[in-house]
């Protein structure tokens, strides 16, 4: 099929432990704000650090209000001609857990509000979308949702695509990562020699992609996928899948390694991820070394929402021309990387954002300023 369009990000919004909106999110990252705190309620007889949102209303109600805000501030009157694409790892699992723990049985559990497309189900009750698609590929869910959005816009199938990456904290996910012995009892320190592990977090990122550019639009220039299938939960130690995903994103965007000024790394703070991703970056970016940082030391790992939230961070890097630093990185273990040690103002035309998931499922996105 002939490619006839470009995909522009014309609106974005978010909520996370790092901020109630995208401006607060970016400010927290740039100022290295402490946003992740210890918790003893999710894992029995164990203290872990998590990224929890302080909220006085239901998470879905917050999402509804943000979608209404989008309609007020965008060029859309309604969502009747908009494709909804959800990326989520948890889906409605927290709702299921709530009833099960209260009742100790399944009778009040609504089967429509449990699976990965539960978020789309909630939104369909409130708004009228043309259609919806849900992705659940663990920690690449919303990155893959963005890739799909780009594809259907470029092919002229849709003019408007609303991508929402969303995950809430649940006992199943927190305890699952605890069982893998990868959780930290402190805020995570990606790429640091003394890393302890990752922080499970919650949040959502909303991005409206359209085929027409507007003032301050950011282009989703390239998408790269790979699947190394090295291990069920660990990436290839040499970063073969990470490297291939980044190479494919560069190819899709018709850019070279010299064009990338900043890499928003997946950077979870686990030994396996840090070594794999940095080895992949080192083997690809040989001559020119872009700045590299992970923002999960401030946002935590929002699982299926991470790709969307970090896409928003990448958009703000381009709009603000500011590269954030690595919070908590004190003792470097892998050399050869141009770590961003201080938040700096610098010229940035293109940003690469990585999302990697269980099973060797890898996605890299490239965002660029619109000429």
Shape: globular
Strand content: 15-25%
Outline the biggest β-sheet.
11 strands, mixed
Number of strands: 15
Secondary-structure element order, N to C: EHEEHEHHEHEHEEHEHEHHEEEEE
Distance between the termini: 26 Å
Structural class: alpha/beta
Percent helix: 25-40%
Strand neighbour order, sheet with most strands: 5-4-6-7-1-8-15-14-9-10-12
Mean pLDDT: 95
- Runs with pLDDT <50, length 5+? none
The whole-angstrom Rg is: 19 Å
Q: Tally the helices.
A: 10
Structure description:
With 371 residues, the chain is α/β, with parallel strands linked by helices. Helices cover 31% and strands 22% of the residues. The chain has helices spanning 22-30, 59-73, 93-103, 118-126, 141-154, 171-179, 240-253, 271-284, 296-299, 306-320; strands spanning 8-16, 37-39, 48-50, 82-87, 131-135, 160-167, 203-210, 218-227, 262-264, 291-293, 322-323, 338-339, 344-345, 350-357, 361-369. The strands form three sheets. Strands 5-4-6-7-1-8-15-14-9-10-12 form an eleven-stranded mixed sheet. The protein has a two-stranded antiparallel sheet with strand order 2-3. A two-stranded antiparallel ribbon has the order 11-13. Strand 14 (350-357) and strand 15 (361-369) form a beta hairpin. The model has no long low-confidence stretch (mean pLDDT 95).
